[in-house]
């Protein structure tokens, strides 16, 4: 993936604030490094209950052949088991359905109520590119088009072929599902997106966007309507 150190602009409405190409290739990780913004903070920490077994993880993170672009199984041997999806105790004043991102611990929580939350392992912004505060899901997309920011194209000319947008697909950095984060009616340039890179989970590689394994992202997406509150904690 191309690693872009530039900043996106508000005109790049299809750009994730960029999910990093191996040399010479335009892939998912390159798009993850770019701009960062600053917001305010809020939330409480969670503690894990019993985790998912390896056999269950193989099922949960198995192939999803019915998708428009069939999703392969995750190589779960490349994911620390602490990042498998699970239900945990999580005390918070936030309403059920709220999404809370904990970049310091590489987790995303969906509040379920009664002191419980669904917890997902995530990749997050790299040092110097993390942000925190309140936002909301302004729009959602399945197999979204990705458009590189103009600043990225200047720094990474090989991205220019996607200046009019990269169609959805397995190689698209936004993956199978995308939640676009807004504040006060404006797109923040940050997203929660689907990652097909299991080795990225539990690491800081992005420009502030948050990635979940595709199977986890579909699970979260299906339960998250537009206008859902999102709280990003300080790292």
UniProtKB/TrEMBL annotation:
Domain L,D-TPase catalytic residues, every copy: 97-233
Any matching Pfam family: YkuD
EC code(s) of this entry: 2.3.2.-
Top-level lineage group: Bacteria
Pathway noted in the entry: Cell wall biogenesis; peptidoglycan biosynthesis
CDD domains reported in the protein's UniProt record: YkuD_like
Alphabetized UniProt keyword annotations: Acyltransferase, Cell shape, Cell wall biogenesis/degradation, Glycosyltransferase, Hydrolase, Peptidoglycan synthesis, Transferase
SUPFAM superfamilies: L,D-transpeptidase catalytic domain-like
GO molecular function: acyltransferase activity
Claim: Cell wall biogenesis/degradation is one of the keywords in the record: yes
Family indicated by similarity: Belongs to the YkuD family.
Protein name: L,D-transpeptidase
Species for this entry: Bosea minatitlanensis
Lineage of origin: Bacteria, Pseudomonadati, Pseudomonadota, Alphaproteobacteria, Hyphomicrobiales
